[in-house]
Amino acid sequence: MTELVHLRQNPKYEGGVLGWLNCNTTSTAMLIAFETAGAKAPDGGAVRNCTLNADGTPDRKVGTKPSQNVSEAKRCWNVELDYVKVTGEELWELGQDPNLAVSVSIDYSVISGTEFDGSPGFRGLHQVVLHDGLVYD
């Protein structure tokens, strides 16, 4: 069974001014490493550097879309990731599987201002990975 390596989404660890906008690319990096059993192990910054806008220009302004990162995993690392939409119940079931790693887009505004809020003031979408019953953020 492949172990999931937790990567930190933080400019301090991956370099670059876009570090705080790289939750999706960091999640994608964890999936690439998981799918290749660590043979390919980019960080979120490397995935971001590979990410392109629809017009082919580098995406350097805001957060990325899951569909972009699925494309970039294939283009830059030759790793096939599935992009599917499922219900919350199906998602949680998939996230319990030790043989799968699932990247999930969540609406952070739901917990903003609560005791679970780890980023005061942030109210946008956030990306995390579920694997073997744990949430990797």
Number of strands: 3
Spatial shape? globular
By secondary-structure content and strand pairing, the structural class works out as: alpha+beta
How much of the sequence lies in strands comes to 5-15%
Number of helices: 5
Cα(first) to Cα(last) distance is: 21 Å
Assign a percent range to the helix content. 25-40%
Main sheet, how many strands, which sense, barrel? 3 strands, antiparallel
Sequence of secondary-structure elements: HHHHHEEE
What's the mean pLDDT score? 84
Uncertain segments: none
- Gyration radius over CA: 14 Å
Main-sheet strand order equals 1-2-3
List keywords for this structure.
single chain; alpha+beta; 32% helix; globular
Question: Would you mind describing this structure in some detail?
Answer:
By secondary structure, the chain is an alpha+beta fold. The chain has 5 helices and 3 strands. The protein has helices at 11-14, 23-35, 44-50, 66-77, 88-95, and strands at residues 102-107, 125-131, 134-136. A 3-stranded antiparallel beta sheet has the order 1-2-3. Helix 2 (23-35) packs across helix 3 (44-50) and helix 2 (23-35) crosses helix 4 (66-77). The longest helix is centred in the N-terminal third of the chain and has 13 residues, at 23-35. The model has no long low-confidence stretch (mean pLDDT 84).
